[in-house]
Amino acid sequence: MSATTLPSAADGAPNTAAPKFAVVGIGNALVDVIAHASEEFLDSHDLNKGSMTLVETDRAVELYAALGTAVEMSGGSAANTMVGVASLGGTACYIGKVNHDDLGDVFGHDMRAVGVPFHGGGVDHGTPTGRCIIVVTPDAERTMNTYLGVSSSLDVGDLDVDAIAAGAVLYMEGYLFDRDDAKAAFRHAATIAHANGRQVSLTLSDSFCVDRHRVDFRSLVQDSVDILFGNADEIRSLYEVNDLDVALKMVSRECGLAAITTGADGCVIVTGDEQITVPAQPVERVLDTTGAGDLFAAGFLFGLTSGLPLAECGEIGSIAAAEVISHVGPRPLVDLRTLLPDG
């Protein structure tokens, strides 16, 4: 297979300036609080295993207190992806929203420390920086309860137009899509990217997220998205079908390129006229699936923006995902570029 050519932009003449960043991400800027707990803990606290549930301040405080010992680190789905791109040797930039509180300062420092410029948008002084409480059960499944805090108030005014225009690919996180202001920001960001000849990608994030925004997601995929990321459950939910093959055929008609992860089976890469299956990388022991999809997207986009064939993009995505599920936490513990075949 020949090297990948990025799909043509939907609108606008190509930008003659070389991209400053391989990928620019937009998403919820959160601090992750990760703890191991039993199935009984989920039951006793009425947690829906494997889901991402939005919670208010009181519920976040209650769960945080009940967990006891936990690991805290800056996170958020798209932010994890940008860190992964940088770890692979690519250039990435992140746009999110935090407050000037302790967690907000930690978040920005963490991103810059790994080489990812952080654009924090405006500040709402009355709302704290968001955080995601992640409960990992013995089977390595993660259950997330997210307090979005100020991150969810990101709007058009928080976008860094120059950064978006300077990224070869814009990567947008579906989790951020719960407010009308955020939806408007997504569409505006996509317009900026396309007007500059750049590409637009979207991650579906979570099947429950898809359930909430199916109509809007379908419209966005059809009108504005060049590259779609999701897993088997999410893509079936998007098209309201039980058969994965049917969902893959449907997405091939609506999006130029889709990369769909299928758990231990690996992934399927879908274009308008072909499907490429890439096996998962072997993992001796799965400890925590948090961040698997985020790091897969990082690897895939690193390969894509490096001009590699689609199958190799999927392989790099699988390598990155395999590393992150072998330990606790949603970000790599080693320099991912060292894991590549020529690393």
- End-to-end Cα distance, whole Å, is 21 Å
SSE pattern: EEHEHEHEHEEEHEHEHEHHEEEHH
Q: Regions with pLDDT < 50 over 5+ consecutive residues?
A: 8-12
Shape: globular
The number of helical segments is 11
Give a count of the beta strands, DSSP E runs of length 2 or more: 14
- Give Rg in angstroms: 18 Å
CATH architecture: 3-Layer(aba) Sandwich
Largest sheet: 9 strands, mixed
Report the CATH topology name: UDP-N-acetylmuramoyl-L-alanine:D-glutamate ligase
How many separate domains? Answer: 1
Could you state the CATH homologous superfamily? Ribokinase
Report the CATH C-level class. Answer: Alpha Beta
Percent strand: 15-25%
Structure write-up:
Helix content is 37%, strand content 22%. α3 (77-87) packs across α10, α7 (207-223) packs across α8 and α8 (232-239) crosses α9. It has a single domain (21-30, 76-127, 149-339), classed as Ribokinase (UDP-N-acetylmuramoyl-L-alanine:D-glutamate ligase). The protein contains 11 helices and 14 strands. By secondary structure, the protein is of the alpha/beta class. The two termini are 21 Å apart. The chain is globular. The model is unreliable at 8-12 (pLDDT under 50). The strands form 2 sheets. The protein has a 9-stranded mixed sheet with strand order 6-5-1-9-10-11-12-13-14, sandwiched between helices.
